[in-house]
Amino acid sequence: MRLTSQGCGVYHVRYESAMGLRPRPAQRIRLTLFAGALLVFPFVASGYWLDLANQVAIATVGAIGLNILVGYTGQISLGQGAFMAVGAYGAALMTLEWGLPWGGSIVLACLLTAAVGTFFGLPSLRLKGLYLAIATLAAQEITEWTVTHWTAVTGGTEAVVAPAPHLFGHRLNGSFEFYWLGIAAAAATALFAANLFRSRTGRAFVAVRDQDVAAGVIGVDVFKHKLLAFAASSFFVGLAGALTAYYRNIVAWERFTLETSVAYLAMIIVGGLGTVRGSFFGAALITLLPALIANAGRALRDVAPQVATQLPYVQQAVFGVVIILFLVFEPKGLSKLWGNVKDYFQVWPFAYRRGENRAS
Prior knowledge:
By secondary structure, this protein is mainly α. The protein has a domain of 233 residues. It has 15 helices and 4 strands.
């Protein structure tokens, strides 16, 4: 007997269909519309919004990398800024000092960042929770001190000017040109992460997050997978740092401080821990929020000048307020809110939710 799609669920008759990333037609339609919007956006957007889109793309790569470690494996990290600095300085210096092409320097910088992340992940064998967070905070401080004091290599507090990337004679650090590189990197990172957690290694990451002792009992090498999580996470964080270096062409240590680490942690908390789409939602919100506040300040400059002058000082507090509100009212973040919206339209016009029975 052949099973068919019914109104109460989705039934698959082939393993290929069941294992698809987007098995339902509605999912494929949403993905197609989103991809179409991304392709049209750079042709209708101004340079200002293109620059913000590029920042969101870079932040998405870094947020997915951090989510692999924190959201999927349960290893708290406050060293995001440090690992981004390794990727940014590594890519720029490999091109300046060794003459490597920008593509090769990005790959090597990502591998270097993965190695550094693995080294700082060694304490995860004995530490977890708050203690591991303090250990990664030490990594942030050590890296920041090294960058600002190793003047022979990094130039100390002086900025490093990275050469502009070129492809077929075209500069790629312009807002329009870099947009395609940014969304390609974000899409590839998202696709890798989505497939990673459908694999044996990804399921082992989740087992370590849920209960590392039980994972060890059933045969999961806990320490090995913790280090793999640090390596995979740091690789993509290094990619975000390298993209930042080639987009801005100026690598300065001020871009990779503890504030950067906190901002990326806010992205995955607000977006949703343990979800790829949550990384995108969080990166978009945390990146665009300062811009929206700045635009509001300019709009209120003539109407309410006293309010406009206070908005820049409120900006830092907004991050904390947003995190607190999500932790209190929706701990699973924007990803859960998006899921609720999809559930509503999927069962509309019926009042009951999918999978729930309501007494008559």
